[in-house]
Every structure is written in C-alpha cells, then in structure tokens.
UniProtKB/TrEMBL annotation:
Biased composition (Basic and acidic residues): 61-81
GO CC annotation terms, alphabetical: Scc2-Scc4 cohesin loading complex
Coiled-coil residue spans: none
Protein name: NIPBL protein
Lineage: Eukaryota, Metazoa, Chordata, Craniata, Vertebrata
Chain intervals for the UniProt region annotation (Disordered): 61-84
GO molecular function: chromatin binding; cohesin loader activity
GO biological process: brain development; chromatin looping; digestive tract development; embryonic viscerocranium morphogenesis; establishment of mitotic sister chromatid cohesion; establishment of protein localization to chromatin; heart morphogenesis; regulation of gene expression
Amino acid sequence: AHNLSFYFLQASGGEDEIQQLQKALLDYLDENTETDASLVFSRKFYIAQWFRDTTMETEKAIKSQKDEDSSEGTHHAKDVETTGQIMHRAESRKKFLRSIIKTAPSQFSTLKMNSDTVDYEDACLIVRYLASMRPFAQSFDIYLTQ
C-alpha cells in the first residue's frame, strides 16, 4: 500500500484528502475498464454517489448554520468559518466531479496526478475508507446499540 500512503501525503499538502482519494480510485477504475466492463458502471455510480453526498453535506452545513442562528441569536466567528470551510470544500468537490462527468473515461488519463496508479489492494482500501466517511457508516454504532 505504498501508493496509497503517497495519496495521503499529497492530500496533506493542501488539496482535499477526499478528493485526492476519489481521483486515485477513478484513475484505477479508468485503467481497468478494458479488462472489466462493469467498472464503467462502478465509475459512474461513484461519481453520482459522491456528488449526492457532497450536496447533502452542503445542505446539512447550511441547516446547521440556520439552527445555530435561530437558537443562539448570535453566531460565533469560529462556527461561521467552519461552516464556510465545509461549504468551500463541498463546492471544490462538486466542481471536480462535474469536470469528471464531462470527461470520457478514456480521456481521464490526462487528469492523472502522476504516473503511479493504485493497485487492487489500494483501491479496496480507498473504497473502504470513503465508505466509512458516509453518514450510515458513521452512525452504525448507534444502530447496533439501539
């Protein structure tokens, strides 16, 4: 998983970690579509799912901001900045995903970060990590305790 650690290091260099991992996974899917046609569907599914998740995240941030405004009357500058950061990150992800939607899988190779691509094991780790960030996975303990 040496390539996967490279993507995590790249993410700490300023770009969104989630977006870096999404790029790596889409790159892997694009590389292997010729040997497995089902990966074309997987690629489209992930793009749509991530776009939906990003939209939901933005709506949740706006709702949270409105709830705090109505309950406290005033807003702490730190809370506003955090909400703004979430919305900025969400818009950045949506912009990236829109650019991918407009790009044919065969043309996606021009958007690669570097010549190294992740292998199957790294792709599985990325999928598991990204899945763990989704709301259902994060609240799974609550479902089990209930």
